[in-house]
Amino acid sequence: MFKLTRIRNPRRSKLKTELKYFRKNRLRMNYAEHLSRNLPIGSGVIEASCKTLVTQRMKCSGMRWRCPGGQGILTLRSLIQSGWFDCGWMLLSVTYRAKVNMVSDNVIPFSSGKGDLER
């Protein structure tokens, strides 16, 4: 007896993969609705934002950043570029404010004139 085997077509497999992707993500692909709400549908806006927000500030000559410092700079820069700095700073500044107490016995006064320097 002969055994019939199904020959797999590589194009069919690729098409099946693509159809699965489109079916899974079809709700995200409602381009007409996104355009009517003035939302970007391409990657150009995101790439341009990455260039102006991140690359121009973080990759200057000689700069090295650790994660906390880099994140702090990017947070402030994004607030400035988005026009939300005043609102954002009201929230952020609470974290970074600290009361400074002056200790009077640890303060050396400035000299009052030329004669004080010649001791």
Structural notes for this entry:
With 119 residues, the protein is mostly helical. It has helices at residues 10-24, 31-36, 44-58, 67-82, 85-96. 54% of the residues lie in helices and 0% in strands. α3 (44-58) crosses α4 and α4 runs antiparallel to α5. The longest helix has 16 residues, at 67-82. The mean pLDDT is 82.
First-to-last CA distance: 116 Å
What is the gyration radius calculated from CA atoms? 31 Å
Q: Looking at the structure, what is the overall shape?
A: elongated
Mean pLDDT comes to 82
Structural class: mainly alpha
Q: Please, how many helices?
A: 5
Number of strands: 0
Largest sheet: none
Write the SSE topology:
Layout: H1 10-24, H2 31-36, H3 44-58, H4 67-82, H5 85-96
Helix pairs in contact: 3-4, 4-5
Offer a quick outline of the entry.
With 119 residues, the protein is mostly helical. It contains five helices and no strands.
Short descriptors:
mainly alpha; 119 residues; 5 helices; elongated
